[in-house]
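Quick log. Single chain, no ligands specified.
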Amino acid sequence: MSPTEQHTKIVLDKIVKCDFCKNFALFDAKTKAGQWAWMCKDCYPEKRYYSTLGLGKGQKIHYIINPKEGDPLLSEAMYEYLDRLQKMPEDERREEIKAMLEDA
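-> predicted structure:
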């Protein structure tokens, strides 16, 4: 990871929720109110203080499935899947997650 990338990305091994709406967070960034928060893709444009990512501004979250040295970051397809999950009705989402965990 280059020095520039180090300040625009954060890698997590667990999913965190947006502090504002409880959807899956994709950013850890400074808010207009001054504090830092986990933010989803919908809340980030409205609540962020800075329009760019970087040191002291915010980072995009990259999730890893099984944190082991050398594991790749999740792909855009996984972000799309997480986005689809958060838009599902709760009972349907629970079934989807249950099935996913059974396959793991």
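The chain has one domain: 3-103.
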